Amino acid sequence: MSTINYVPVLLLLPLLFGLCNASFVTIHILNILSDDVLLFCTSQPGINAHLHPQNPFYWSFPAETSENCFTDWHELRAPFSAYDSHYDQGHPNIYWMVKQDGLYHSWDNKSFVKKVGWN
Question: At 17, which helix (H) or strand (E)?
């Protein structure tokens, strides 16, 4: 007759429950320019992407961390905080739009506010 040791299972349950309930944030970026924009972010393992015109780009990560990025377009640069864990807290989706005069931020994908211009 075999005996099952339930102690390790009981110790793992809180960890598994915590991982299942971890909150994630999804960053959505839409480039409405007529040509590509380069995107670089500091997350692990890091984001390095070409944002093609009218082609939505998105990624998700744990909501406890902030996500700092910058975009390059025709020798112009725009650094921005794609997700600020304090400012954007409670919003599971963050939307960004890349325009000719800079980057715009939204929580509802309808009302966008300019956050940074090109340098």
Answer: helix 7-20
Chain centroid, CA 4 distance in Å: 43
Element (H, E) at 14: helix 7-20
Tokens of 2: 């075999």
Sequence-distant (≥ 6) Cβ neighbours of residue 24 within 8 angstroms:
60, 61, 62, 63, 92
Give the model's confidence band at 42: pLDDT under 50 very low, under 70 low, under 90 confident, else very high: confident
pTM for the whole thing?
A: 0.80
Among the listed residues 59, 108, 58, 110, the one whose alpha carbon sits nearest the alpha carbon of residue 88: 108
Yes or no: say if 49 and 57 are a contact pair by the CB < 8 Å rule.
yes
Instruction: Provide the residue ranges of all domains of the chain, joining segments of one domain with +.
Output: 23-116
Would you state the structure tokens that stand for residue 118, as one six-digit string? Answer: 């090109």
Give one DSSP letter per residue of 20-43, joined into a string: HT--EEEEEEEE-SSS-EEEEE-S
